[in-house]
Request: fold
Amino acid sequence: MAAPSKQKTRWHIAVFLAPAVLVYTAVMIYPLFNTLRLSLYSEIDQERIWVGLQNFRTLFGDAIWSDQFWNALANNGWFFLIHMLVQNPIGIALAAILSSPRLRFSAFYRSAIFIPTILSFVIVGFAWKLILSPIWGIAPGMLDAIGLKFLYQPWLGKEEYALTTLSLVSVWQYVGIPMMLIYAALLSIPDEILEAGECDGITGMAAFWKIKLPLILPSIGIISVLTFVANFNAFDLIYAAQGALAGPDFSTDILGTFMYRTFFGFQLQLGDPHMGSAIASAMFGIILIGVCIYLFGIQRRLRNYQF
Amino acid sequence: MTQIRRIPGTAIAAHAVLITYTIIALFPVFVILINSFKTRRAIFRDPLGLPTEETFSLIGYQTVFKQGDFFLYFQNSMIVTVVSLTLILLFGAMAAFALAEYRFKGNTLMGLYLALGIMIPIRIGTVAILEMMVSTGLVNTLVALILVYTAQGLPLAVFILSEFMKGVSDDLKNAGRIDGLSEYKIFFRLVLPLVRPAMATVAVFNMIPIWNDLWFPLILAPAEEVKTLTLGSQVFIGQFVTDWNAVLSALSMAILPVMVLYVIFSRQLIRGITSGAVK
Reply:
């Protein structure tokens, strides 16, 4: 390396930053903006031409496209709602129980409950598909054992249940993450605060609702936004369990699978990178809106308590 | 129990809830594993029974080994994961050091720029990434996957590591400077060893998503010789849907490496999450 001139051309700073910034810019940021740019083009006679917002007009205006888009978006919204209503409360409840003092085997429970989270969607998707399958009969067999056989349905094969079932499978898989984060937040609450509460007669459940829950609200906020981002760019589970067509009859189609199908094509439809980019741009917008609502609307109102 | 004490009802209730949920969490994995060692008949007749002497069978595993190149898939996954993690840690630590240690113009801005990627998923840029990989001839190579995962892991790595590096004592670094160590030596010899726990946390956080990813292998590297284990098992299972022995065995074989990794690293992972590294 050339010796830096006497005063401060601190080359080492550039050397330290360069590899990370280059890889990050070239493989993440540049393609991101390039994708946004590509959504303004179209391919006609094998030539890429500028079409402005035409792709978006097609996506939102042309019934063939807009029906699919709104269907995927609505499904995605339902997918997210189930996560918020089922995954996070279960995660919080488990964390609250785990964090109670003098609980035996808590390390074992923690590790065991976290196991589904480390498995890939492919494993999880197929495993549940087999278990719920009417051919194998584990699910109906077990319902039969407790006298509830009449409740059994081929859940993944019915339009009205498939999406909810898959959302619950995803909840089953990811409950470990809110559990761990909330658990960490609960452990960081100093004992003095809880003892002060005890002196005022606040114990047990009341201590949870009145003292702990308000203190872990910032963590719940973070978990919500992480869930939002993960859900609105989910793909693997649906693809592994239901294929790219997100059956039955697109009832489990979400933005990720819709974008994949559009980009690569399926059956008779040819792949279209520009429409794919348009969908990706819409996803980008949705995620951006969600993150901004969190950053400016929610996070600012939650006070972070420093202990 | 050596000591007689009253077990309060709440403790029993707590254990009951936790045991119930643990069973819910482990049941599917357990069912897949036990059935992968059974004959086809036993799989259907008694899906919840453990394999016995009569019902024990390895036919599924034989099919898997004959038909699928699982060792190759495993090797590919291993290469991609290990190389990506190394690059994330090295590049991430270097950038984190620059941001945490030096005051220079644009420091905050650079920090924000690198942090953007924490919230924005790299998948959004897939169309352009594929186009770029095609034009550089990297499509269907492991390099493409490594580059993508490195870029994806860097933002969080830089964020976590720079928080930790701010805590490294200035006296130590200045002592090194007085002894005439270059900035590079200060970084590699003094600072890196001190942030090792944080590096382990970053490694564990990145390991599982990289190993399990289906999207990028499917799009950037679907060719047989570069398939990762996740994609390989997905394709294999898709082809053998009706061969239950093979499907169950393939699933078990896909579960195994992750479980081994988890057993080795679970302490680190749980400590990493609970230490609040992701706040």
Q: What stands out?
A: Chain A is about 70% helix and 5% strand.
